[in-house]
Amino acid sequence: MIRYVCGIEDENVLLSSLLTGRLDIYSSTLSRLKAGGGIYLNGEAVHVRRPVHEGDIVEIDLACAEIPSQIPAEPWLPEIIFESEGLIGVNKPAISVVHPTVFHREGTIAAGVVNYYQQKGIRAGIHIVNRLDLGTSGLMLFAKYGLVQERLRKQAERGEYTKIYIGVADTRNPEQTLRAGDRFDIDAPIARDRTSIIKRKVDPDGDPALTKVKILSVNEEKHTALAAFSLVTGRTHQIRVHMSHAGFPLLGDSMYDPAFYESENTHQLLHQFRSEFTEPLTQEHMRIYCPLPDEISSEYPEAEMLQEAAESSDIFDSLTT
Predict the structure, then answer these.
(1) 256 lies in some domain
(2) Range of 45's domain?
(3) What are the pLDDT digits (tens) for 263-320?
(4) Which residues pair with 219 in a beta bridge?
(5) 163-196: string of b/e by CB count within 10 Å (b at 16+)?
(6) Residues 10, 133, 253, 257: which is the catalytic one?
(7) DSSP E strands: which ranges in the chain?
(8) Other CB atoms within 10 A of residue 122 CB
(9) How many domains does the chain have?
């Protein structure tokens, strides 16, 4: 519920103008609110053509703008690591898919979220804020309401919603050596690979794509490097495509690592580790961490200290500025 007390500056302003202007309610949400009866003035459900006056209390029930999810609930719960008025964050296992597809109809993260909503009595929809590939683990945000999803999208466009990924790269590149502390940008446009409906590639005619990289640690014996990534743009498979293009594909990446079949890993070692944003309903600054999976922390024992180090002195600042 959004609650707003009208001031003198709102005197005689139409409620519709107040909602779209002062309260930043998008037209799509407003249309659904009007249809669902979720707009109240001084406790009374009203039409938006009414003027407001100083001291009036406007309340918006965002749940009334939600269309029931078509994804059926399944009898299991995802690991919830964060919840606010407008969002929940779950820890996505690598070998899982986000929502039902032709090939993955059951066991999706979205179906578990629907079950969580039903068990908690939360009237909310399924609005995916950030998608993670099959094979990628980590923090996934679901907006409970369409308005929250849209506001976070706007934050991302302004560079105010940032994400940090942690991954393990294959360093068997005879032409270049990675060292702990190295920082570099990969600025290369990405397009669909016409040989596949899924695969992407670096292409001069593709969409602009920029990835910031910091090498955290190097294991010379295993020819691997622990790296942190920040996406300035959000193209499909961006980190995977860019690291392969740079000559350091992610370990276990069956699509972009030429040496995949020599690897013991069955999927790319990539994890969405941190998200930073402003909670769209409470305006609270949030910095959310998602614990690293064993397959990364066991490869690099020092990875277990990443969260503690990041919280005390942000080692990722250079990646998000």
Answers:
(1) no
(2) 2-65
(3) 677 789 999 999 999 999 999 999 999 989 988 887 776 666 666 665 555 667 666 6
(4) 224
(5) bbbbbbbbbeeeeeebeeeeeeebebbbbebeee
(6) 133
(7) 2-5, 39-41, 44-45, 57-60, 79-83, 87-92, 127-128, 137-143, 162-170, 183-187, 190-192, 200-202, 210-219, 224-231, 270-278, 285-289
(8) 13
(9) 1
The two most distant CA atoms of the chain are separated, in Å, by 72
Residue 119 parent element (H or E): helix 109-120
| Assigned domain for 308 exists | no
Gyration radius of the chain over CA positions: 22
* 54 is a domain residue: yes
Quote the CA–CA distance of 321 and 212 in Å, as a whole number: 10
Q: Nearest CA to 172 among 105, 116, 250?
A: 250
Respond yes or no: is residue 133 known to be catalytic: yes
**CA dist list (Å): 81 to 195, 264, 293:** 38, 29, 14
Q: CB under 8 Å to 103, separation ≥6 — which residues? A: none
- Tell me the Ramachandran region of residue 224: left when phi exceeds 0, alpha when psi lies from -120 to 50, beta otherwise: beta
- What pTM value is reported for the model? 0.88
Closest CA to 145 of 87, 82, 71: 87
Q: Look-up: residue for tokens 């942190």? A: 228
